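Our preliminary data section would be incomplete without showing what the modeling component actually yields. Below, a chain of 116 amino acids is followed by its predicted structure, encoded as tokens that our downstream tools consume directly.
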Amino acid sequence: MKYFYSYKKNDYAALLAAYLHLEMDYNQITEKKLKPYKLYYMGSDRKLDEVYLIKYPSSKKETLMNILNGMGYIFNENSIINDLSKYDGLFYRLYKNNIKKDIEMRVVEWRHENNL
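Predicted structure:
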């Protein structure tokens, strides 16, 4: 399986997401400027899933997603595309609070289902 982290502006956030996915030390992030449309291979996680970063301009999102899905279909590979562009805007704090609430709600549901 391949994980793609796509983003528009925030290079550091994309690098941080990849480092956290790979369970690497995120304090060692040094490179902050990545070139658009260049696929960066970040490594493999414990399940041997590959993690990639790709930057795209704002008007080409759908085209990029279709290309990535098409390549996965051609090579018979499952792919998960995580779009980080919603964290680039002015309302990042609103998204952050909503995500925290969703995570807390899922943890409560999981505990309830597993009788913990």
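The chain has three helices and four strands. The mean pLDDT is 79. Preliminary results of this kind motivate Aim 1 of the renewal.
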